[in-house]
Amino acid sequence: MPVKLFTLNNVPDDEAEDVRELLRSHAIEFHETSAGLWGMSVSALWLRDESQFREARRLIDEYQSERLLRVKEEYANLRRDGRNRTVIDLIKENPLRFLGYLAAVAVVIYFSTKPFMDLGK
User: Fold this and answer.
1) How far is residue 85's CA from residue 39's CA, in Å, rounded to a whole number?
2) Which of 10, 37, 38, 57 is deepest in the core (most CB within 10 A)?
3) Is the pLDDT reported for residue 32 higher than 90?
4) Distance between CA atoms of 36 and 43, rounded to whole angstroms?
5) Would you kindly state where each structural domain of the chain is located, as residue ranges?
6) Which residues does 30 contact at the CB level (< 8 Å), separation at least 6?
7) Helices 13-25 and 53-81, interaxial angle, to 10°?
C-alpha cells in the first residue's frame, strides 16, 4: 500500500526537484500526485514500498536540515549586504498593484462594517 512521504503543496520547485532527485539517486521508488486542476488535492510524493519509508524519511530530514542552514545563511548574507527585499521595496517596484490591493481592502472593510453602522439609526 502506498505511503505518503512528502507533501508538495507550497513547496518551492527547486526543493521538490531536489527531493525527487535524492530519492532517485538512492533507488527509492515513488510516485507523485498533483494538486489537480483547481489546486484542491494533495500534491505529494508517495512510496511504493513501505519498507523503504525509514530510509527515505531519514534522507529527506537530512536534506531539509542542510537546506535550512543554507537558506538561513543566504538570508543573513543578503541582509548583511543590504540586498534583502522588504515590503517597501515591493511597494516601490509596483505602486499601482499596492494601491489596487489597498483599495480592495478598503472596499471589503467598508462592506463588512456598513451594516453594523446602520444598526444604530
Assistant:
1) 28
2) 57
3) yes
4) 8
5) 1-84, 86-121
6) 5, 20, 23, 45, 46, 47, 48, 56
7) 140
- Within the chain, where are the H helices? 13-25, 53-81, 87-93, 95-117
Listed residue (53, 15, 48, 17) closest to 31, CA to CA: 48
Supply the pLDDT for residue 105. 98
Q: Which amino acid is at 68?
A: L
Angle at 40 between CA 34 and CA 41, to 5 degrees: 45
SS3 state at 9: coil
Supply the pTM of this predicted model.
Answer: 0.72
CATH architecture of 1-84: 2-Layer Sandwich (3.30)
pLDDT reading at 36 higher than 90: no
Instruction: Compute the Cα dihedral for 8, 13, 14, 20 and give only its sign.
Output: positive
